[in-house]
Q: What sequence folds into this?
């Protein structure tokens, strides 16, 4: 069980960056805790690959060194950056950690000067506004789960 936040509040939380700044097992547990999926989707191994595939990873740890926040992003370092997801552990929310992580992203050398896209649900619109983001008029997010297997995955299943 994670250490409860202490009297220092979000100041007791350290923000760091780098693909290896977040432990995959802890990250997977955080996503599952937030109800985003099961351990089948968010296994440690898949999360490790998902973190390694990101251009920018920013994490937040409490004073006990436990992961309490994670931001994953992709960037072309020139034009556009997309936040894939941002999560803060439930008992650490509304303490300014999300804003600190988004601020750290904006200052990242690969992200500076790019347009940053952040997709989120209506309930987080206040947070997005607080971070300085406005809805992009006329833009709706479409998604589809790609059913084409990766070549590695296909070989693993005995396909040609
Ligand atoms: C969205 C999320 C990342 C915000 O992180 P956070 O650390 O709780 O946010 P902060 O404490 O930095 O919030 C800063 C400000 O944003 C606004 N805000 C944050 N959460 C809000 C909410 N649920 N409703 C309204 N305003 C909100 C407030 O203005 C807040 O300042 P205040 O607490 O002084 O009023 C976090 O709630 C979370 O992980 N949610 C679940 C996962 C998710 O939906 N992720 C986003 C999409 S990828």
A:
């Amino acid at each position: 069980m994670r250490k409860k936040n202490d009297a220092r509040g979000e100041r007791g939380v350290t923000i760091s960056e780098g693909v290896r700044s977040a432990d995959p097992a802890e990250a997977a547990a955080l996503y599952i805790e937030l109800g985003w999926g099961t351990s089948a989707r968010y296994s440690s191994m898949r999360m490790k690959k998902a973190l390694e595939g990101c251009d920018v990873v920013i994490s937040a740890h409490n004073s006990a060194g436990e992961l309490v926040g994670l931001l994953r992003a992709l960037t072309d370092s020139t034009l556009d950056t997309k936040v894939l997801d941002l999560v803060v552990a439930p008992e650490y929310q509304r303490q300014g950690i999300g804003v600190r992580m988004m601020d750290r992203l904006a200052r990242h050398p690969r992200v500076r000067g790019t347009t940053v896209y952040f997709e989120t649900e209506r309930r987080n619109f206040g947070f997005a506004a607080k971070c300085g983001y406005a809805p992009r008029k006329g833009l709706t997010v479409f998604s589809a789960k790609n059913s084409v297997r990766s070549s590695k995955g296909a070989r693993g299943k005995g396909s040609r």
Observations:
- Residues 153-160 have pLDDT under 50 and may be disordered.
